[in-house]
Each structure stands twice: as C-alpha cells, then as structure tokens.
Design a protein that fits this description.
Number of helices of chain B: 24
Oligomer: heterodimer
Number of helices of chain A: 15
Helix content of chain B: 25-40%
Largest sheet of chain B: 8 strands, mixed
Largest interface: A-B, 69 and 76 residues
Number of strands of chain A: 2
Structural class of chain A: mainly alpha
Shape of chain B: globular
Shape of chain A: globular
Structural class of chain B: alpha+beta
Distance between the termini of chain A: 20 Å
Helix content of chain A: over 70%
Chain lengths: 354, 669
C-alpha cells in the first residue's frame, strides 16, 4: 500500500471527500427546485380513491408543510429536516420513512450490482485481451459477435431468455435449475431465518454462518447478475480490445518482446496495466449507474431493488422518495468517481495528483 | 539481463551511439523473429493444455450425467411441490395492513385470510347473501335502525383470548375515529349513528378534534350490552348495512394487542398497525412475514376457533413481470398466478374461446376459469355541462348526440381485441348476479354498435344546433392504461369514419391530474371504472345516477331530483321487491338518457394448477384467487414417475460444457 503512504494522495482523497459536501448542497437545491417544478406537491395527497379532502383540508396540508412560504424558506425547512435524518415519508412504500426504504432497497441493488460488476470484469477483460491478442483470428470474431450481441440485445429480453433456458426448461425436465427471481427462496428463507445486518444477504449469511441461505442467495444472484452484466461485459470487451491493440503497438512492448520475455509476461505485466485505464473509467461510471438501480432487470427478476422503488415513486409523484433517491445516487456517483481516480494512481504510477 | 546495464558498459559518446545503433538492430531483429515465431503455425499434435481442457470437459460431462441419473431417475417423486403451502404469485404490493385504513385489493386479500368480521357472505359459493361469522345471530329493530349482534362464545383471537363485545366496539370505533378520508370509513360507515358528523368534519384528519371525537362517542352508535352482545344504532334505516359490516374495514381487532402497540389516535394512522395490522385478528391464518416488493407469508392460526384450513401456509409473492409469473406457474413453483386478460391466450386456446366461449387449457395441468366479476369498468362518462370555449357549443347536453355516441361504440370489437373476449357488454351500473340486476330489462335497453343509427343521431343533433362542423372533442383516459387507450382510439375511429363533421382527439392524463380535472368538470368525456366496496346496488347506482353526490354523476352535470329521491328511498327500503322495482326505474332512466356509455363488465380470470382443489369464486372477495384457502381449498398430493427424455440430457450437457469453452479456447491458444 505504498500509494496510501503518499501524503499528497491522502490530502487529495480528503479534499475529494470534502468536495462531496458542496455537490450535495447543489444536488439538494436542484432536486428541491425540480420537485416544485414538476407538479403541485399537494397532488400526492390525491390518490386513487375518490378524494374526500375539502378545500379546507387541502389548505391545512399546505400550511402544515409550509408550502405557502417562499421557496428559500421551504428549502431551509427541507435541509434542516434532512440533517436531522427526517427524509420524509415514502408514500409508494406503505408510508415508511424514506431512510428506511433506502435501507431496505439499496443493499439489494448494491449486492446485485457488485455481482454483475464482478461478472462483467472477470469475463469482459480476459475476453477483450484474447480478442486483441488474437486479432482477426476465429477467437476474435467470436468475441466480437458476442460483444455486439451484448450491446444490442435489450436486457429484459436476455433476462427472459435466461429464465426460459436455465429456470423453466431445466425445471420441467427435472434437472437442477437456477431460480427465476427474488433474492432468496421462500422455503429456504422460512426454514433458515436470516438475521439481516448489512442488508447484503451474502455477507449477512456468512457472518451468521447461515450457509443454506448463503448458497441459495448465490444461486439467486447468477441469472440477474449475468443478465445485468452482459451489456457492460460487451462494452468492456470492446474497450479492452481497442486499448490493448493500441498499447501493443507501442515501442515498449516491442522492447519487452525483444528482451525475450514470454508473450504472457508481455501481455499481463507490460501491456495490461496501461490498457486497463479506459476500462476502469467506464467500469467506475457503469458501477455508479448500476447502483442507481436497473429497473428492467429488477422487474423481470422480481428483485426488490432501489430501481423499482424509485420508478414507482416517480410514477406516483412521490416527491419525498424521489428526492431521497436522487441524493443517494449523487453520493454514490461521487464515490464511484473518486474510487476510479484512485485506481488510476494505483494502476499507473505515472499518473500524479494535481 | 536488464536492458539498462548494457549502457554502462560503454563510456564514450561515440561508442555509446554506435552501441545504440547496434542495439536498435538487435531489437529489430528480435522483434522480427518474435513476430515470425508468433505467426508461425504451431507444430501439429495436441499440446498438453488442450488435452487437459478436454479431460476437464469430459469429467464435467460424466459427473453431470452421472449425477443426473443418480439423483433423479430411480425415484418416484412427489409431483406437487410443497403440498401444504399455497403459492400465489401476483403483482403490486400490499399498501397497508391496518384494516381500519386499507382500501386496495392487494391488502384486502391478506385481511380476508387473517381478519374476521361480525357477519360475512355465506361462502363457499358465489353468493352475496350475508350470514353469521363472529356474530352467531342478530336482531333488527322494527324501524330498521338498531342491530343487536350476539357473538359466538367460541370465537377467539389468534393469541387465544376470546372475542368480546368490547373488542367489537373498540374495532368499529377505531375505524371511524381514524377516519382516513382516503380509506374505507367514509364510504362504508357513514350510517352508524354519529359517524357522519365525524367523517365529514374537516378538522378531524391530521389532527385530533376532541369535540367531534366526544360527540361521536356520546352518540352511542356502538354499544356494549354484555360481553357477548353488541348493539349498533344507525341514523336511519339503511338496507345494505349488513353488507357494509362484511367489508374488511369492519374487521374485529384484538383490543389488548392494539392498545399495547400505539392504541387509537383519532385522525392519525397507527404506524405499527399499518405494518402489523393483520396479526391481531381472529382469522384462519396469521401474518408471519411481510417483505415489501417481495412477499407476504401467512401461516395457519393453530388457535383458530372455526373449521381449521387445510393448508398450513399461504405465500403471496410479488413478481411484476407477467412472463416470469407464467414460467413459475408452468414450472409448478406457483400454484396460482394473476394474469391480465391480454395474456389470456398464453394459457387457453384462442379459437374455442372467441368462437364458443369454451375454455381449453394450452398446457396439461392448468386450470383456468372465467367468471363475471362485480367490476363496472370502464365507462365513458359524458359531461353534459361541458362547453367548448371557442364555439360555445354544449354538445353533450343534446340527448341525440349522447345516443349517437352510445351507438358509435363497437362493444364486441372492444371486448374481443382489448381483453380477448374476457368480458361481456356493459349492463349499466348493477353487475350481473347482484341483487337488483334484471337481465331482461337490461337486454331491452342496451345499445348496440350501429354506425347507421349513430350517423342518423349525429345529424339530428347537428340540425338541432348541438354542434357545428369541425367540432373538436377530446376523450380522456389515465396514463398507462393500455386497454382504455385502445377503447378511446376505437371510439375515435368509428366516429370519424361516419363523416359527421366531428374531430375526436385522445388524450392521456396522469391519475391525480385526471381525477382533479374530472372533479373540476373540465373533461368532456372521461373513461373510468368503478370497483365495489360492498355487494349492494347502493354502492353502484348512486355513483352514476345521483347528480348531487354520485362520484361520476355530479361530474356529468345532470341532476334529477326525482331520481335522487328514488335512490334515497331504495337505500332504506326493506322490501326487496319494492327495492328492485325502484332500481329498475332508475336503470331504465339511466339508459334512456345515455349519460354514460357502458362498455363492458370484465370477467374475473382465475389461473391455477389443477392440483389446487376446493377453489370457488365469489365476486366479493378482494383476493378471489386465494381467499378460498380460508374455506377449505387445498393442494392435492400426487406422485408421478419421472420420464426419461433425451433433450434435457443434451441441454444439461451443453449447459455444463458452455462455461468451459472459452477456457478451452484460451488454453489451447
């Protein structure tokens, strides 16, 4: 961990973390303003039932929520509540506090995102390397088709195909099959109740030694994790391939070869590090995007993630939930970017921090 | 050898330069050699890496096939998975668990299995006649305003404590005092003495208004006579009172448990009850788990005082994607699923159904039934007072114009194309099977699709000055409702085809805006439906006919005091024959005025595996698919010899070998 000993680096990390604060203030201002632009906040009180709220009651709601005061005063109320941990009530989530909803849905999304990121990187990078090293050979053609399919195929379609093949076809033929959706099998869950600590079921089940749930959760992660990762995997393959080809043309690679180093060492020691940089950038942003929830994948695999929650909040004009969601996502993106920048320094020592 | 060390061997500049040239030459040569070497074909013959890869694949395949035979083939397996658990897969999440405020079907179906009311429909069966439940009998005073309920002395809650009159009073007072304006109380419990003042009070929601609370409690609407007798007094006789007492909002809760968890705060939700409200009942099941957007698990109440249910567990899974639900049903992981009518032909054959209304399941082992429900939906409400701002015309005020609209709608095409024929043509406000429905009368009044007549009536209306050429009319529906969008387009098409100088537009609005605009009477035509709260025409007819209070009628700008009087009379009339005659008059008037285009009455679809036995349909169930579990529905246990087929083996081998292929490709490189 030599790079952490670097004082400038440490200062840089602290500065970047501090920078999150003004950005958050900006985001909160934007979401707050947007929430007043999109529609009348009182509309949230008009629900599917025939409304029996009178003008008087509506006026009371307006007063109770300070909606009659100037915007900056309202913003002040909003920020002070936010800091006290009162993020409002999520009407789309049975009137739970927004913070509780985020606690409930975010770990599910985080777990799925991590798994699909692992899939995407673990498959995408090697395939990209193979594709570059064996340029214009059959292996290259196969991987190019593979990545083209990944970029072009809608994720819900892939998800349904995976379900059909690995759940339904295997199941009806009495073969071991993968589960079609959800985070954990209902019967396993009922027989082996899991004490939820972090909300990441894999971690929780390992901590508590609940291996029945652990393996079941892993099985449940495979199909949605793969479906979600495929498109990123395809992007990584293409990025990896092009940057690898670029790097392989550099003089220092020729030099390394000329030293008589084996091709494996040339590729993995010398070329890979430099070729990784663009992929890391894309991967970091992709990970941030994944954490914002993947609505289609979550819907098809009935995954109780933040994407489904936020979509239903948007559809139902549930402003408190939307604002809470946007804040969380802003933080996630900032952190993802920071991690990417730090990874640069780790991968390529030439990159210094200014 | 590290490259740098070469330079240190030479000291002078010239020598160094020469050596660099030399080095360049060497590098060039080396790289040429290495490229040459790389491009050369490898000597034939398998190298050891490829061999290893092949061996690994062979081992995997052998292990897979062997494991398959070992695990699956020699045994006779139970064909029905988890025979003691009914797995129901549906979409949409439960909103709230508290029976005092829940008012949606997803929450209602949980409450129906876990909570009980004083009286209930005489199930099993499709009847809507009310019979005893927690109350074994009741007396009604001669003037029809005082109901005395005698509780069943065996009745007890799921924690074993008996159900007393005190609990009953507590429960009903609780529903009224919480008084959620969006909840069921204002629709269903207005008639209990003192409740109307409280429920229409404008300062009683979001704050506790002690004056009103005391006024309600002092009115003595619900009185405890003795531990097993409770008396409910109404403001005035009200014929559907017993039906309202069968709705989940009149569920009896365990006072002790509610008091221990927040009690009652008039005008406010009880947050604990919103999450745990179905744990405090006396029903055959009890709530053990609710994970939002995932599932609800109910387990048999081992203390149940009535006939215990046969199933041990009911699981309600939330899966929003239809395709996933279908696969779960076909694979046998789900016993019952919710399927929209648009997917009807995924489970039954198309032609026999559309031609002869015959149900032929597409797959072995499916059980599908379609029954007329109590939904009156959707209907085009025509706003007679709507005025075109530019031309000043009020077309819908003209009766001929409204007739033309009713003739211009293609009812059969709508039912067949939008809901795959899983509906019958609209029959007015009272659905088939309910008290007050008169099939002969409705058949004689119904409009049919008739473009010629529609044109004739449109021209008549134009001659009378109802509109002029180029008149624009907009049909509104709520965003996201595909069936309604297509209904609007169908009407637009058939009217514009007539060439009577009308231009029809179709416009979507999001639900709150739609309702707000409808309330403000700004919509000329609104396409909307009505779902029942209780099985009585009083919950349906005034909605469409009472110009003062009707949810839709007062947004359509008509008001007929004579009809309003008849509606009031019908709601208190205790003689069924007289009551039916009154409703017949009202229905006749509604059809003759054609204020509403009654498009269809959808059929309820029940899609299950055929091992679910003892299921029956009742239109009043919030959860027609699973509520029968409380009345003896069960899963039949079967065993079956597993068949050996070749394809699954091939598929299995392919599935196992696929992940190894890239590895093989790389290794052998």
């Amino acid at each position: 961990m030599r790079w952490w000993a670097d004082v400038r680096l440490r200062h840089y990390v602290i500065r970047r973390l501090l920078l999150i604060i003004p950005v958050l203030i900006g985001v909160s201002m934007m979401t707050f303003t947007l929430s007043h632009v999109i529609g009348d906040p009182v509309a949230a009180y008009i629900t599917s039932q025939e409304v029996r709220l009178s003008e008087e009651q509506l006026r009371k709601i307006v007063v109770a929520h300070h909606l009659n005061e100037p915007l900056y005063v309202q913003y002040f109320y909003y920020i002070s509540d936010l800091l006290r941990g009162d993020w409002g009530i999520s009407r789309t989530d049975s009137d739970r506090p927004v913070t509780e909803s985020i606690q409930h849905y975010f770990p599910a999304t985080a777990e799925l995102s991590m798994v699909s990121m692992i899939f995407a990187l673990a498959l995408g990078i090697p395939i990209g390397i193979i594709s570059a090293v064996r340029k214009d050979k059959p292996a290259d053609h196969v991987t190019r088709v593979f990545s083209l399919v990944g970029v072009s195929m809608p994720v819900f379609w892939l998800a349904l195909l995976l379900q059909y093949a690995f759940y339904y076809q295997l199941k009806i033929h009495n073969l071991p099959s993968l589960p079609s959706g959800g985070r954990v099998d209902q019967f396993v869950w009922l027989d082996h109740p899991l004490k939820v600590i972090t909300g990441l079921y894999t971690v929780d089940s390992l901590i508590t030694g609940n291996f029945a749930v652990f393996f079941d959760v892993l099985a449940h992660l495979i199909l949605p994790g793969f479906a979600l990762s495929y498109v990123f995997m395809a992007v990584f393959v293409r990025m990896m391939r092009s940057s690898m080809l670029e790097v392989m043309r550099q003089d220092y690679i020729t030099l390394a070869r000329s030293k008589g180093l084996s091709e494996r060492v040339v590729i993995y020691r010398h070329a890979l590090r430099n070729a990784m940089i663009p992929t890391v950038t894309v991967a970091g942003l992709a990970f941030g995007g994944l954490l914002a929830g993947a609505v289609l994948t979550e819907t098809v695999f009935s995954w109780p993630g933040i994407g489904r929650w936020s979509t239903s909040a948007i559809v139902r004009d549930d402003i408190a939930s939307i604002m809470g969601f946007m804040l969380i996502i802003a933080v996630v993106y900032m952190l993802a970017n920071l991690i990417v920048d730090l990874l640069y320094a780790w991968i390529d020592p030439r990159i210094r921090l200014g | 050898m590290p490259v740098q060390s070469i330079f240190y061997k030479f000291k002078t500049k010239a020598v160094r330069q020469e050596s660099r040239l030399e080095l360049d030459r060497r590098v060039l040569w080396l790289s040429e050699m290495s490229e040459k070497k790389m491009s050369e074909k490898k000597p034939s013959g398998m190298n050891w890496k490829a061999l290893a890869a092949v061996i690994i694949i062979v081992i995997i395949v052998i292990a897979g096939v062997g494991g398959y035979y070992y695990m699956y083939l020699p045994s006779t397996r139970p064909l029905v998975p988890n025979p003691d658990t009914l797995v129901f897969t549906t979409f949409g999440d439960v909103d709230k668990m508290d029976t005092a405020v829940l008012y949606d079907t997803a929450s209602g179906e949980i409450a129906e299995l876990t909570m009980e009311t004083l009286v209930y429909y005489k199930v099993p069966g499709a009847t809507t006649e009310v019979g005893p439940k927690l109350a074994k009998s009741w007396d009604v005073s001669a003037d029809g305003t005082v109901y005395t309920f005698h509780l069943n002395e065996n009745a007890k809650f799921n924690d074993g404590t008996p159900v007393t009159a005190d609990d009953v009073k507590y429960s009903i007072d609780r529903t009224i005092l919480i008084g959620d304006p969006d909840g069921p109380a204002p629709t269903l419990h207005m008639h209990i003495k003192g409740a109307a003042d409280y429920l229409t009070c404008e300062t009683c929601w979001g704050s506790t208004n002690d004056t009103y609370v005391n006024a309600y409690l002092n009115a003595g609407g619900v009185k405890v006579i003795d531990p097993l007798t409770v008396q409910i007094t109404l403001d005035a006789p009200y014929a559907p009172f017993l039906a309202t007492m069968a709705f989940t909002s009149a569920s009896i809760v365990n006072k002790k448990l509610v008091e221990a968890n927040g009690g009652v705060k008039p005008g406010f939700y009880n947050d604990w009850m919103n999450q745990h409200g179905t744990e405090v009942g006396s029903g055959p099941f009890k709530l053990v788990e609710w994970t939002p957007k995932t599932r609800v698990v109910l387990e048999r109440n081992e203390n149940y005082w009535g006939t215990p249910p046969k199933l041990k567990r009911v699981i309600v899974n939330e899966v929003d994607e239809v395709g996933t639900r279908e696969l779960a049903l076909f694979a046998g992981d789900s016993d019952v699923i919710t399927l929209p009518a648009t997917n009807l032909f995924d489970v039954i054959e198309k032609d026999p159904w559309l031609n002869n209304k015959q149900i032929v399941p597409l797959k072995k082992g499916l059980a599908v039934s379609l029954d007329p429900g109590y939904l009156v939906s959707p209907n085009f409400g025509l706003n007679t007072k709507w005025k075109d701002e530019t031309t000043g015309a009020m077309p819908f005020d003209n009766k001929d114009f409204r007739y033309a609209f009713s003739y211009a709608f293609d009812y059969k095409t709508f039912a067949d194309s939008v809901v795959n024929g899983a509906a019958i043509q609209g029959v007015g406000p009272i659905p088939p099977g309910m008290f007050g429905y008169d099939e002969a009368l409705v058949k004689s009044l119904q409009f049919s699709y008739n473009p010629d007549k529609a044109k004739e009536y449109f021209l008549k209306a134009k001659d009378a000055g109802a509109y002029t050429d180029g008149q624009k009319i907009t049909l509104y529906y709520n965003t996201g409702n595909e069936a309604r969008r297509r209904g609007c387009l169908l009407l637009k098409d058939s009217i514009e085809k007539l060439g009577v100088g009308l231009s029809i537009e179709v416009q979507e609005l999001d639900w709150p805006t739609f309702l707000a605009k409808m309330r403000a009477k700004e919509l000329p035509v609104f396409f909307i439906g009505w779902a029942p709260d209780f099985a009585d025409p009083d919950d349906y007819v005034p909605v469409f006919a009472n110009g003062k209070t009707g949810t839709f009628a007062r947004r359509q700008g008509f008001d007929n005091p004579e009809i309003d009087a008849k509606l009031d009379q019908a709601s208190v009339e205790s003689d069924p024959a007289k009551r039916k005659a009154l409703y017949n008059e009202i229905i006749t008037w509604l059809f003759q005025e054609a204020y509403t285009i009654w498009t269809l009455v959808p059929l309820n679809m029940h899609v299950a595996r055929d091992w679910v036995k003892g299921w029956f349909y009742n239109p009043m169930f919030s959860g027609p698919d699973i509520t029968p579990a409380a009345y003896g529905a069960y899963k039949e246990e079967r065993t079956d010899q597993v068949a050996i087929t070749i394809e699954p083996l091939a598929l299995f081998i392919a599935a196992m070998a696929l992940p190894a292929l890239p590895n093989y490709a790389r290794k052998s490189a």
